[in-house]
Amino acid sequence: MTVGFESLREQLRRWVLVIGVAQVLFGCLVGFIPPTAVSWFRGIVMAHIEFTANGVLMIAIGLLAREMRLGAGALKAWFVTLLIGTWTNGGAGLAGAFIGQSSSLMPTLNQQFPAPGGADNPIVTGLLMVCGVTIVIALVLTLVGLVRHKPQVPTAV
Fold first, then answer.
1. Handedness of CA 89, 90, 92, 93 (dihedral sign)
2. Which residue ranges make up each domain of the chain?
3. How is domain 3-147 classified at the CATH fold level?
């Protein structure tokens, strides 16, 4: 591998770790939004949980970056899809909280905590769909990169 590629992988790894910690912090800060500030407080709860959980996911995957063997293009796609997927997940809850609407993609949440404006908001649904596709792509690329890694086995002297 070239020095340039190793540098790219280390830079992306570092950014995934930094952004992951920032996302956990953002999720914690979202948790301070009072129920009276939004139309649908359950969206804030969702956003808080999703931002913090996805931040932890980013940190864990970032720690695996050195073990992944992907080409430069696939590595960049991994970074972008991981970033988009983890932020749109919590973003859907945040949008729903302020809009006061949910998505039909969350039937259990809608049954227990129905949004006042209904469960058919295209913004919330769109964010969840983007989240699902991009996180799956990022996880598949992570798995492929890990499977392609051939660890150095020490030889006996």
1. positive
2. 3-147
3. Four Helix Bundle (Hemerythrin (Met), subunit A) (1.20.120)
**CB-CB contact of 141 with 65 (8 Å):** no
Terminal C-alpha separation, the chain: 27
State the pTM of this model: 0.89
R_g of the chain computed on alpha carbons: 19
pLDDT averaged per 10 residues, the chain (length 157): 81 97 98 96 96 98 94 96 97 97 93 94 97 98 93 72
As a whole number of angstroms, the longest Cα–Cα distance in the chain is: 71
Number of neighbours of residue 107 by Cβ within 10 angstroms: 11
For 28-72, give the DSSP string. Answer: HHHTTS-GGGSS-HHHHHHHHHHHHHHHHHHHHHHHHGGG----H
Whole-number Å distance between alpha carbons of 102 and 128: 11
Task: Find tokens 């590629």 and name the residue.
Answer: 5
Q: For residues 127 and 122, what is the distance between their CA atoms, to the nearest angstrom? A: 8
Structure tokens at 157: 């002297």
